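Recall from the previous chapter that SMILES is a line notation for molecules. Here it describes magnesium ion.
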Amino acid sequence: MIDYCMQNDGAAVVIEGLEKSYGTAAGSTPVLKGVDFLVRRGECVYLAGPSGSGKTTLLSIIGCILSADHGRVSILGQDVFALSGKQRTALRRNSLGFVFQRFHLIRGLTTLDNVCVPLTLQGICPTSARRRAMSLLDAVGLADKADKHPCNLSAGQCQRVALARALVGDPELILADEPTASLDAANGQDVMELFRRLTTEEGKTVVLVTHDQRIFRFADRVFWLENGCAVENSREAQSKSQGSGETGSEQPLYAVSCDKSNGE
Ligand SMILES: Nc1ncnc2c1ncn2[C@@H]1O[C@H](COP(=O)(O)OP(=O)(O)O)[C@@H](O)[C@H]1O
Ligand SMILES: [Mg+2]
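With both inputs in hand, we obtain:
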């Protein structure tokens, strides 16, 4: 297992045999049952799957927000479970940008100050932080909302502020949980193109959770999370289903069930 992580040291994300259960009053519920997942640097990889399949759980483990029960996780060449709490925080602050499914904006701060938060935590001086945050707000089309508080913004605008905050620290690895869920078609397309450019022009790595199969075309690769395992979908599978008449934009491009035996 160590060999596998070391062999793929140059990858952005290497996950092997990852298991995670949640303890509830009814007992322990397994969510991830042996996930293997590899993302190379500079790739834009999507993680899809039905609601409740564990997409947010897996993304949170990659983002060093949640711990796992078993397995290996290497992020940007660092063995996450071997890091101290301080080292994990440093990795999260300096190298990861996370777009949360429910935004997690701070209500008492303006949008500009919300976007400044990662820079403040990195110790950047307030003037530079505000300048950089303003340019990100401009990039997501919200420069005119800099002084507004989140409660005065629509869900789609909050989603774009959350995106600006995730990108403001210039992270190497960007993790986005359903970042287009609250956006209309035009803004959704803009955001997907932005993620694409971040990988092709700036060499960033993106792992994006979505259940919207209409945006799969923006991905280098798509993994399907089902029955606690991750299975990669191939482009051949996409074109096959498109060729068989499933061409309507609302139609699933493909669906692959987990065929991996894990003894469960
Ligand atoms: N903190 C938690 N405590 C207990 N169960 C949880 C917790 N977080 C998620 N779950 C359960 O784990 C499963 C996977 O959740 P999640 O990762 O949010 O799935 P997805 O993002 O694919 O919808 C769901 O059944 C969910 O109810
Ligand atoms: Mg989720």
